[in-house]
Description:
- With about 525 residues, this protein is an alpha+beta fold.
- It has three domains: about 1-100; about 110-170 and about 215-250; about 270-520, no CATH class.
- It is about 55% helix and about 10% strand.
- This is ABC1 atypical kinase-like domain-containing protein.
Amino acid sequence: MNYYKMNYFKNFYYIILDFCIKTKYFVYFNLFLNVIFINYLYYTFWGTTSNKLILLLNYTINLNGCILIKLIQWLNNHVSFIKNDANKNTAIIKLFSKYYENCSIHNLKYTKNLFFEEFGYVFDDVFTLDETFSVKSGSIAQVYKAYFKNTINTINDCCIENPIAIKVVHPEIEYQMLFPIYFINIYKFFVTNFTFLKTYDTIINYDSFFINLRNQINMVNEYKNNEYFYNKYIANDVIIIPKPLFKSKSFLIMEYIEGEFLEKMDVSIYKKKILMSFLSMFIKDSYMFGKYIHCDLHDANWKVLKEKNDKYHIDADADADASFTYKIIIYDFGYIIENNLNEQIKNLIYYLDINNIYEIGKILFEHIENLKLKDSNSLEFLDYKEVLIRKFVDFNERCYPYTDSNIYACYNFCHSYGYKLKNNLLDLFVSSMLLDKYFKKYLFFSYNSNNTIEFDDEKYYKNVYDTNLFYINLCEKYDIFHNVKDFLYSKYINNTFFIEKINYNNNYFNSLNVNDTFDI
Protein backbone atom coordinates (compact mmCIF):
# COMPACT_ATOMS: atom_id res chain seq x y z
CA MET A 1 0.00 0.00 0.00
CA ASN A 2 2.80 2.43 0.89
CA TYR A 3 4.37 1.76 -2.50
CA TYR A 4 1.17 2.76 -4.33
CA LYS A 5 0.80 5.87 -2.17
CA MET A 6 4.36 6.91 -2.91
CA ASN A 7 3.85 6.26 -6.60
CA TYR A 8 0.60 8.27 -6.55
CA PHE A 9 2.22 11.27 -4.85
CA LYS A 10 5.19 11.04 -7.19
CA ASN A 11 2.92 11.14 -10.26
CA PHE A 12 0.88 13.95 -8.73
CA TYR A 13 4.09 15.91 -8.11
CA TYR A 14 5.16 15.59 -11.75
CA ILE A 15 1.69 16.63 -12.97
CA ILE A 16 1.84 19.76 -10.82
CA LEU A 17 5.42 20.46 -11.91
CA ASP A 18 4.45 20.03 -15.57
CA PHE A 19 1.53 22.43 -15.12
CA CYS A 20 3.71 25.03 -13.38
CA ILE A 21 6.38 24.96 -16.09
CA LYS A 22 3.79 25.26 -18.86
CA THR A 23 2.14 28.15 -17.02
CA LYS A 24 5.50 29.86 -16.64
CA TYR A 25 6.21 29.76 -20.37
CA PHE A 26 2.63 30.77 -21.19
CA VAL A 27 3.14 33.93 -19.13
CA TYR A 28 6.60 34.53 -20.60
CA PHE A 29 5.40 34.16 -24.19
CA ASN A 30 2.43 36.48 -23.68
CA LEU A 31 4.77 39.01 -22.10
CA PHE A 32 6.96 38.75 -25.20
CA LEU A 33 3.98 39.32 -27.53
CA ASN A 34 2.86 42.36 -25.54
CA VAL A 35 6.33 43.90 -25.60
CA ILE A 36 6.57 43.36 -29.36
CA PHE A 37 3.20 45.07 -29.78
CA ILE A 38 4.32 48.01 -27.64
CA ASN A 39 7.50 48.31 -29.73
CA TYR A 40 5.40 48.31 -32.89
CA LEU A 41 3.09 51.04 -31.58
CA TYR A 42 6.03 53.16 -30.50
CA TYR A 43 7.62 52.88 -33.93
CA THR A 44 4.31 53.60 -35.67
CA PHE A 45 3.78 56.85 -33.74
CA TRP A 46 7.37 58.12 -33.47
CA GLY A 47 9.07 56.65 -36.53
CA THR A 48 11.97 55.33 -34.49
CA THR A 49 12.71 52.63 -31.92
CA SER A 50 13.16 53.07 -28.19
CA ASN A 51 16.37 51.66 -26.73
CA LYS A 52 14.60 50.90 -23.46
CA LEU A 53 11.81 49.04 -25.22
CA ILE A 54 14.32 47.12 -27.31
CA LEU A 55 16.15 46.10 -24.13
CA LEU A 56 12.83 45.02 -22.63
CA LEU A 57 12.18 42.96 -25.74
CA ASN A 58 15.63 41.45 -25.31
CA TYR A 59 14.76 40.55 -21.72
CA THR A 60 11.47 38.84 -22.67
CA ILE A 61 13.24 36.79 -25.34
CA ASN A 62 15.72 35.55 -22.73
CA LEU A 63 12.83 34.67 -20.41
CA ASN A 64 11.27 32.49 -23.09
CA GLY A 65 14.50 30.56 -23.54
CA CYS A 66 16.48 29.13 -26.35
CA ILE A 67 13.72 28.07 -28.75
CA LEU A 68 12.44 31.61 -29.20
CA ILE A 69 16.03 32.78 -29.71
CA LYS A 70 16.44 30.13 -32.43
CA LEU A 71 13.21 31.27 -34.06
CA ILE A 72 14.37 34.90 -33.93
CA GLN A 73 17.70 33.94 -35.54
CA TRP A 74 15.90 32.06 -38.29
CA LEU A 75 13.40 34.86 -38.98
CA ASN A 76 16.24 37.39 -38.81
CA ASN A 77 18.04 35.55 -41.61
CA HIS A 78 14.93 35.54 -43.80
CA VAL A 79 14.07 39.20 -43.18
CA SER A 80 17.66 40.29 -43.87
CA PHE A 81 17.50 38.66 -47.32
CA ILE A 82 14.55 40.85 -48.35
CA LYS A 83 15.70 43.88 -50.30
CA ASN A 84 13.93 46.81 -48.72
CA ASP A 85 15.89 49.94 -47.88
CA ALA A 86 13.02 51.13 -45.73
CA ASN A 87 12.95 47.98 -43.63
CA LYS A 88 11.39 48.91 -40.31
CA ASN A 89 13.05 46.03 -38.49
CA THR A 90 16.67 47.08 -39.04
CA ALA A 91 17.37 48.06 -35.41
CA ILE A 92 15.79 44.88 -34.02
CA ILE A 93 17.63 42.71 -36.56
CA LYS A 94 20.96 44.15 -35.40
CA LEU A 95 20.06 43.40 -31.78
CA PHE A 96 18.95 39.83 -32.53
CA SER A 97 22.09 39.01 -34.51
CA LYS A 98 24.15 38.64 -31.32
CA TYR A 99 22.30 35.51 -30.19
CA TYR A 100 24.39 33.05 -32.19
CA GLU A 101 26.93 32.63 -29.39
CA ASN A 102 25.54 34.76 -26.57
CA CYS A 103 22.70 32.62 -25.25
CA SER A 104 22.19 31.93 -21.55
CA ILE A 105 24.40 29.31 -19.88
CA HIS A 106 22.58 26.72 -17.81
CA ASN A 107 23.84 25.37 -14.49
CA LEU A 108 26.69 22.83 -14.42
CA LYS A 109 24.83 20.85 -11.77
CA TYR A 110 22.01 20.28 -14.27
CA THR A 111 24.55 18.97 -16.81
CA LYS A 112 26.06 16.56 -14.29
CA ASN A 113 22.71 15.24 -13.09
CA LEU A 114 21.47 14.76 -16.65
CA PHE A 115 24.67 12.94 -17.63
CA PHE A 116 24.20 10.44 -14.79
CA GLU A 117 20.55 10.01 -15.74
CA GLU A 118 21.33 9.23 -19.39
CA PHE A 119 24.65 7.36 -19.12
CA GLY A 120 24.65 5.92 -15.61
CA TYR A 121 28.10 7.36 -14.85
CA VAL A 122 29.14 10.14 -12.49
CA PHE A 123 30.21 13.11 -14.63
CA ASP A 124 33.31 13.88 -12.54
CA ASP A 125 34.44 10.25 -12.73
CA VAL A 126 34.55 10.46 -16.52
CA PHE A 127 35.60 14.03 -17.34
CA THR A 128 37.95 16.74 -16.16
CA LEU A 129 36.62 20.12 -17.24
CA ASP A 130 39.01 22.73 -18.61
CA GLU A 131 38.45 25.54 -16.11
CA THR A 132 40.15 28.10 -18.39
CA PHE A 133 37.57 27.56 -21.12
CA SER A 134 34.52 29.82 -21.29
CA VAL A 135 31.43 27.71 -21.86
CA LYS A 136 29.95 28.38 -25.31
CA SER A 137 26.16 28.55 -25.35
CA GLY A 138 24.04 28.39 -28.48
CA SER A 139 20.30 28.43 -28.97
CA ILE A 140 19.89 24.65 -28.57
CA ALA A 141 22.82 23.52 -26.43
CA GLN A 142 26.02 24.59 -24.73
CA VAL A 143 29.55 23.24 -25.10
CA TYR A 144 32.22 22.45 -22.50
CA LYS A 145 35.86 21.72 -23.14
CA ALA A 146 37.10 18.73 -21.16
CA TYR A 147 39.44 15.75 -20.99
CA PHE A 148 38.66 12.10 -20.43
CA LYS A 149 39.83 10.42 -17.26
CA ASN A 150 41.25 6.89 -17.39
CA THR A 151 37.83 5.44 -16.56
CA ILE A 152 36.63 6.39 -20.03
CA ASN A 153 37.87 3.02 -21.27
CA THR A 154 34.82 1.50 -19.60
CA ILE A 155 32.62 3.57 -21.95
CA ASN A 156 34.52 3.88 -25.20
CA ASP A 157 37.99 3.22 -26.49
CA CYS A 158 39.14 6.83 -26.86
CA CYS A 159 42.42 8.68 -26.50
CA ILE A 160 42.38 10.34 -23.08
CA GLU A 161 45.11 12.87 -23.86
CA ASN A 162 43.24 14.95 -26.43
CA PRO A 163 40.64 17.57 -25.49
CA ILE A 164 36.99 16.83 -26.17
CA ALA A 165 33.85 18.92 -26.57
CA ILE A 166 30.78 18.05 -24.49
CA LYS A 167 27.61 19.36 -26.08
CA VAL A 168 24.51 19.23 -23.87
CA VAL A 169 20.97 20.36 -24.70
CA HIS A 170 19.53 23.20 -22.60
CA PRO A 171 16.83 22.36 -20.01
CA GLU A 172 13.08 22.72 -20.63
CA ILE A 173 13.52 22.83 -24.41
CA GLU A 174 10.29 20.89 -25.04
CA TYR A 175 8.29 23.36 -22.94
CA GLN A 176 9.85 26.32 -24.70
CA MET A 177 8.58 25.02 -28.05
CA LEU A 178 4.90 24.79 -27.06
CA PHE A 179 3.62 28.34 -27.30
CA PRO A 180 5.68 29.54 -30.28
CA ILE A 181 4.26 26.55 -32.21
CA TYR A 182 0.70 27.34 -31.08
CA PHE A 183 1.12 30.99 -32.02
CA ILE A 184 2.60 30.25 -35.46
CA ASN A 185 -0.20 27.78 -36.22
CA ILE A 186 -2.82 30.39 -35.27
CA TYR A 187 -1.01 32.98 -37.39
CA LYS A 188 -0.90 30.60 -40.38
CA PHE A 189 -4.61 29.86 -40.04
CA PHE A 190 -5.61 33.52 -40.18
CA VAL A 191 -3.29 34.61 -43.02
CA THR A 192 -4.31 31.57 -45.07
CA ASN A 193 -8.07 31.65 -44.56
CA PHE A 194 -8.91 35.36 -44.38
CA THR A 195 -8.46 37.25 -47.64
CA PHE A 196 -7.74 40.64 -46.05
CA LEU A 197 -4.84 39.09 -44.08
CA LYS A 198 -3.18 37.27 -46.98
CA THR A 199 -0.77 40.18 -47.48
CA TYR A 200 0.81 39.16 -44.15
CA ASP A 201 1.56 35.64 -45.36
CA THR A 202 5.21 34.76 -46.06
CA ILE A 203 7.19 32.27 -48.15
CA ILE A 204 8.64 30.81 -44.94
CA ASN A 205 7.85 27.16 -44.19
CA TYR A 206 7.24 27.20 -40.43
CA ASP A 207 6.24 23.52 -40.29
CA SER A 208 9.62 22.51 -41.68
CA PHE A 209 11.38 24.82 -39.23
CA PHE A 210 9.80 23.16 -36.21
CA ILE A 211 10.36 19.66 -37.62
CA ASN A 212 14.05 20.49 -38.07
CA LEU A 213 14.11 22.03 -34.61
CA ARG A 214 12.79 18.83 -33.04
CA ASN A 215 15.54 16.92 -34.82
CA GLN A 216 18.15 19.38 -33.56
CA ILE A 217 17.25 18.95 -29.89
CA ASN A 218 17.94 15.21 -30.13
CA MET A 219 21.70 14.68 -30.07
CA VAL A 220 21.28 11.19 -31.53
CA ASN A 221 20.28 12.84 -34.81
CA GLU A 222 23.20 15.23 -34.68
CA TYR A 223 25.58 12.35 -33.96
CA LYS A 224 24.40 10.56 -37.13
CA ASN A 225 24.81 13.73 -39.19
CA ASN A 226 28.22 14.43 -37.69
CA GLU A 227 29.31 10.85 -38.37
CA TYR A 228 28.21 11.10 -42.02
CA PHE A 229 30.25 14.26 -42.67
CA TYR A 230 33.23 12.94 -40.69
CA ASN A 231 33.39 9.76 -42.77
CA LYS A 232 32.81 11.62 -46.04
CA TYR A 233 35.66 14.10 -45.48
CA ILE A 234 38.07 12.05 -43.37
CA ALA A 235 40.50 11.79 -46.31
CA ASN A 236 40.13 15.44 -47.33
CA ASP A 237 43.22 17.43 -46.34
CA VAL A 238 41.56 20.86 -46.25
CA ILE A 239 38.21 20.14 -44.53
CA ILE A 240 38.19 19.12 -40.86
CA ILE A 241 35.13 17.55 -39.23
CA PRO A 242 35.36 16.89 -35.45
CA LYS A 243 35.03 13.16 -34.80
CA PRO A 244 31.85 12.20 -32.89
CA LEU A 245 32.64 9.84 -30.01
CA PHE A 246 29.38 8.89 -28.29
CA LYS A 247 25.93 10.27 -27.67
CA SER A 248 22.62 10.14 -25.85
CA LYS A 249 19.40 12.06 -26.35
CA SER A 250 20.81 15.17 -24.65
CA PHE A 251 24.60 14.73 -25.03
CA LEU A 252 27.06 14.64 -27.90
CA ILE A 253 30.73 14.06 -27.04
CA MET A 254 33.18 14.76 -29.85
CA GLU A 255 36.70 15.88 -30.63
CA TYR A 256 37.50 19.41 -29.54
CA ILE A 257 39.12 21.38 -32.37
CA GLU A 258 39.75 25.06 -31.78
CA GLY A 259 39.60 27.40 -34.76
CA GLU A 260 39.88 31.08 -35.61
CA PHE A 261 37.44 33.39 -37.32
CA LEU A 262 38.65 34.13 -40.84
CA GLU A 263 38.12 37.87 -40.45
CA LYS A 264 40.34 38.02 -37.35
CA MET A 265 43.27 36.20 -38.94
CA ASP A 266 46.40 38.15 -39.84
CA VAL A 267 47.04 36.55 -43.23
CA SER A 268 47.04 37.87 -46.76
CA ILE A 269 43.89 38.42 -48.82
CA TYR A 270 45.22 35.81 -51.22
CA LYS A 271 45.37 33.16 -48.49
CA LYS A 272 41.87 34.07 -47.37
CA LYS A 273 40.77 33.67 -50.97
CA ILE A 274 42.17 30.13 -50.97
CA LEU A 275 40.45 29.32 -47.68
CA MET A 276 37.13 30.61 -48.98
CA SER A 277 37.70 28.54 -52.12
CA PHE A 278 38.03 25.45 -49.90
CA LEU A 279 34.74 26.31 -48.20
CA SER A 280 33.05 27.06 -51.52
CA MET A 281 34.10 23.68 -52.91
CA PHE A 282 32.92 21.94 -49.73
CA ILE A 283 29.50 23.49 -50.31
CA LYS A 284 29.50 22.58 -54.01
CA ASP A 285 30.48 19.02 -53.13
CA SER A 286 27.63 18.75 -50.59
CA TYR A 287 25.08 20.31 -52.93
CA MET A 288 25.99 18.41 -56.09
CA PHE A 289 27.23 15.05 -54.80
CA GLY A 290 26.31 14.76 -51.12
CA LYS A 291 23.49 12.88 -49.45
CA TYR A 292 23.05 15.65 -46.89
CA ILE A 293 23.49 19.45 -46.82
CA HIS A 294 24.68 21.60 -43.90
CA CYS A 295 22.11 24.42 -43.72
CA ASP A 296 23.49 26.44 -40.82
CA LEU A 297 26.94 27.71 -41.80
CA HIS A 298 26.69 31.03 -39.98
CA ASP A 299 29.87 32.64 -38.65
CA ALA A 300 30.17 30.47 -35.53
CA ASN A 301 29.76 27.16 -37.37
CA TRP A 302 32.91 27.30 -39.49
CA LYS A 303 36.38 28.47 -38.58
CA VAL A 304 39.98 28.12 -39.70
CA LEU A 305 42.49 25.71 -38.17
CA LYS A 306 46.04 27.06 -38.10
CA GLU A 307 48.69 24.44 -37.34
CA LYS A 308 52.47 24.45 -37.20
CA ASN A 309 53.99 22.61 -40.14
CA ASP A 310 56.91 20.69 -38.61
CA LYS A 311 58.11 19.58 -42.04
CA TYR A 312 58.69 23.15 -43.19
CA HIS A 313 62.10 24.76 -42.66
CA ILE A 314 62.09 28.54 -42.41
CA ASP A 315 65.01 30.40 -43.95
CA ALA A 316 65.95 33.83 -42.72
CA ASP A 317 64.35 35.53 -45.72
CA ALA A 318 61.33 33.23 -45.97
CA ASP A 319 57.75 34.08 -45.16
CA ALA A 320 57.34 32.89 -41.55
CA ASP A 321 53.62 32.35 -42.09
CA ALA A 322 54.42 29.71 -44.70
CA SER A 323 55.43 27.40 -41.86
CA PHE A 324 51.74 27.01 -40.94
CA THR A 325 49.03 24.93 -42.51
CA TYR A 326 45.44 26.16 -42.80
CA LYS A 327 42.23 24.16 -43.00
CA ILE A 328 38.49 24.79 -42.75
CA ILE A 329 36.71 23.36 -39.68
CA ILE A 330 32.97 22.66 -39.93
CA TYR A 331 30.93 22.59 -36.70
CA ASP A 332 27.37 21.90 -35.54
CA PHE A 333 25.52 19.25 -37.52
CA GLY A 334 22.07 19.80 -36.05
CA TYR A 335 20.45 21.59 -38.98
CA ILE A 336 21.12 19.10 -41.77
CA ILE A 337 18.67 18.30 -44.57
CA GLU A 338 18.55 15.33 -46.92
CA ASN A 339 19.67 16.22 -50.43
CA ASN A 340 17.45 14.83 -53.18
CA LEU A 341 18.19 17.59 -55.69
CA ASN A 342 21.72 16.75 -56.83
CA GLU A 343 21.05 16.98 -60.57
CA GLN A 344 18.80 20.04 -60.28
CA ILE A 345 21.43 21.77 -58.15
CA LYS A 346 24.13 21.08 -60.72
CA ASN A 347 22.00 22.79 -63.34
CA LEU A 348 21.05 25.61 -60.98
CA ILE A 349 24.68 26.36 -60.08
CA TYR A 350 25.65 26.43 -63.75
CA TYR A 351 22.75 28.67 -64.77
CA LEU A 352 23.46 31.01 -61.85
CA ASP A 353 27.08 31.26 -62.98
CA ILE A 354 26.29 32.04 -66.61
CA ASN A 355 23.43 34.36 -65.60
CA ASN A 356 20.84 32.39 -67.57
CA ILE A 357 17.80 33.92 -65.92
CA TYR A 358 15.27 32.06 -68.06
CA GLU A 359 16.61 28.60 -67.09
CA ILE A 360 16.80 29.67 -63.43
CA GLY A 361 13.16 30.68 -63.71
CA LYS A 362 12.25 27.22 -65.05
CA ILE A 363 13.91 25.53 -62.06
CA LEU A 364 12.23 27.99 -59.70
CA PHE A 365 8.83 27.25 -61.24
CA GLU A 366 9.29 23.51 -60.63
CA HIS A 367 9.79 24.17 -56.90
CA ILE A 368 6.89 26.53 -56.18
CA GLU A 369 4.27 24.91 -53.95
CA ASN A 370 1.29 27.25 -54.33
CA LEU A 371 0.85 27.37 -58.11
CA LYS A 372 -2.65 28.43 -59.15
CA LEU A 373 -2.80 25.74 -61.85
CA LYS A 374 -1.92 22.10 -61.17
CA ASP A 375 -2.66 20.24 -64.43
CA SER A 376 0.79 20.20 -66.02
CA ASN A 377 -0.55 18.67 -69.26
CA SER A 378 -2.94 21.48 -70.13
CA LEU A 379 -2.12 24.29 -72.57
CA GLU A 380 -3.32 26.78 -69.98
CA PHE A 381 -0.71 25.45 -67.55
CA LEU A 382 2.08 25.84 -70.13
CA ASP A 383 1.02 29.44 -70.78
CA TYR A 384 0.87 30.05 -67.03
CA LYS A 385 4.38 28.64 -66.65
CA GLU A 386 5.76 30.82 -69.44
CA VAL A 387 4.15 33.96 -67.99
CA LEU A 388 5.63 33.26 -64.55
CA ILE A 389 9.12 32.63 -65.96
CA ARG A 390 8.96 35.82 -68.04
CA LYS A 391 7.84 37.70 -64.96
CA PHE A 392 10.92 36.38 -63.15
CA VAL A 393 13.19 37.41 -66.06
CA ASP A 394 11.80 40.94 -65.90
CA PHE A 395 12.23 41.01 -62.12
CA ASN A 396 15.88 39.94 -62.22
CA GLU A 397 18.41 42.61 -63.17
CA ARG A 398 21.56 41.53 -65.00
CA CYS A 399 24.68 42.22 -63.02
CA TYR A 400 28.31 41.28 -62.66
CA PRO A 401 28.72 37.77 -61.23
CA TYR A 402 28.07 37.41 -57.52
CA THR A 403 27.98 41.15 -56.76
CA ASP A 404 24.19 41.02 -56.58
CA SER A 405 23.42 37.35 -56.28
CA ASN A 406 20.69 35.83 -58.42
CA ILE A 407 19.81 33.71 -55.40
CA TYR A 408 18.69 36.89 -53.63
CA ALA A 409 16.64 37.71 -56.71
CA CYS A 410 14.96 34.27 -56.54
CA TYR A 411 14.12 34.77 -52.88
CA ASN A 412 12.84 38.32 -53.34
CA PHE A 413 10.83 37.37 -56.43
CA CYS A 414 8.98 34.71 -54.44
CA HIS A 415 8.52 37.12 -51.52
CA SER A 416 7.17 39.90 -53.76
CA TYR A 417 4.65 37.71 -55.58
CA GLY A 418 3.70 35.42 -52.68
CA TYR A 419 5.14 32.22 -54.12
CA LYS A 420 6.04 29.55 -51.57
CA LEU A 421 9.14 27.53 -52.40
CA LYS A 422 9.44 23.87 -51.55
CA ASN A 423 11.48 23.61 -48.42
CA ASN A 424 14.52 21.78 -49.85
CA LEU A 425 15.26 24.57 -52.35
CA LEU A 426 14.41 27.32 -49.84
CA ASP A 427 16.84 25.84 -47.31
CA LEU A 428 19.50 25.65 -50.01
CA PHE A 429 19.01 29.34 -50.88
CA VAL A 430 19.19 30.43 -47.24
CA SER A 431 22.30 28.35 -46.50
CA SER A 432 24.03 29.89 -49.53
CA MET A 433 23.10 33.44 -48.58
CA LEU A 434 24.60 33.02 -45.10
CA LEU A 435 28.06 32.97 -46.71
CA ASP A 436 27.41 35.44 -49.50
CA LYS A 437 29.31 38.33 -47.87
CA TYR A 438 32.51 36.25 -47.67
CA PHE A 439 32.25 35.00 -51.23
CA LYS A 440 31.79 38.56 -52.47
CA LYS A 441 34.73 39.85 -50.45
CA TYR A 442 37.32 37.14 -51.08
CA LEU A 443 36.33 35.26 -54.22
CA PHE A 444 34.58 37.81 -56.39
CA PHE A 445 35.83 41.09 -54.93
CA SER A 446 37.30 42.37 -58.21
CA TYR A 447 33.93 43.80 -59.27
CA ASN A 448 32.70 45.04 -55.90
CA SER A 449 33.87 48.60 -56.46
CA ASN A 450 32.55 48.76 -60.02
CA ASN A 451 29.52 51.03 -60.00
CA THR A 452 28.60 50.74 -63.66
CA ILE A 453 25.33 49.05 -64.54
CA GLU A 454 26.50 48.28 -68.06
CA PHE A 455 26.73 44.55 -68.59
CA ASP A 456 30.03 43.42 -70.12
CA ASP A 457 29.67 39.86 -71.44
CA GLU A 458 33.38 39.19 -71.83
CA LYS A 459 34.31 40.42 -68.32
CA TYR A 460 31.40 38.55 -66.81
CA TYR A 461 32.16 35.18 -68.33
CA LYS A 462 35.91 35.56 -67.99
CA ASN A 463 35.46 36.10 -64.27
CA VAL A 464 33.31 32.97 -63.97
CA TYR A 465 35.76 31.00 -66.11
CA ASP A 466 38.79 32.22 -64.13
CA THR A 467 37.17 31.47 -60.78
CA ASN A 468 36.32 27.90 -61.73
CA LEU A 469 39.74 27.41 -63.27
CA PHE A 470 41.21 28.56 -59.96
CA TYR A 471 39.09 25.95 -58.16
CA ILE A 472 40.32 23.23 -60.50
CA ASN A 473 43.92 24.23 -59.92
CA LEU A 474 43.41 23.99 -56.16
CA CYS A 475 41.81 20.57 -56.53
CA GLU A 476 44.80 19.39 -58.55
CA LYS A 477 47.35 20.86 -56.15
CA TYR A 478 45.82 19.44 -52.97
CA ASP A 479 44.21 16.32 -54.47
CA ILE A 480 40.75 17.22 -53.16
CA PHE A 481 37.12 17.32 -54.31
CA HIS A 482 37.58 15.09 -57.33
CA ASN A 483 33.89 15.06 -58.28
CA VAL A 484 33.72 18.84 -58.11
CA LYS A 485 36.87 19.15 -60.21
CA ASP A 486 35.48 16.87 -62.93
CA PHE A 487 32.18 18.74 -62.97
CA LEU A 488 33.86 22.15 -63.22
CA TYR A 489 36.14 20.99 -66.00
CA SER A 490 33.36 19.51 -68.12
CA LYS A 491 30.85 22.28 -67.46
CA TYR A 492 33.12 25.33 -67.66
CA ILE A 493 36.62 24.71 -69.01
CA ASN A 494 35.79 22.18 -71.71
CA ASN A 495 32.70 24.09 -72.78
CA THR A 496 32.37 25.82 -76.16
CA PHE A 497 30.07 28.39 -74.55
CA PHE A 498 32.97 29.92 -72.61
CA ILE A 499 35.43 29.43 -75.45
CA GLU A 500 33.18 31.55 -77.65
CA LYS A 501 32.45 34.16 -74.97
CA ILE A 502 36.01 34.96 -73.88
CA ASN A 503 39.44 35.23 -75.41
CA TYR A 504 40.29 31.59 -74.71
CA ASN A 505 43.94 30.87 -73.98
CA ASN A 506 44.89 27.23 -73.65
CA ASN A 507 47.91 28.14 -71.52
CA TYR A 508 45.92 30.25 -69.10
CA PHE A 509 45.47 27.33 -66.71
CA ASN A 510 49.21 27.35 -65.98
CA SER A 511 49.21 31.07 -65.26
CA LEU A 512 46.93 30.68 -62.25
CA ASN A 513 49.58 30.11 -59.62
CA VAL A 514 48.36 28.91 -56.24
CA ASN A 515 51.77 28.07 -54.81
CA ASP A 516 52.50 31.48 -53.24
CA THR A 517 54.05 29.76 -50.18
CA PHE A 518 50.62 28.54 -49.02
CA ASP A 519 50.82 24.85 -48.25
CA ILE A 520 48.37 22.89 -46.18
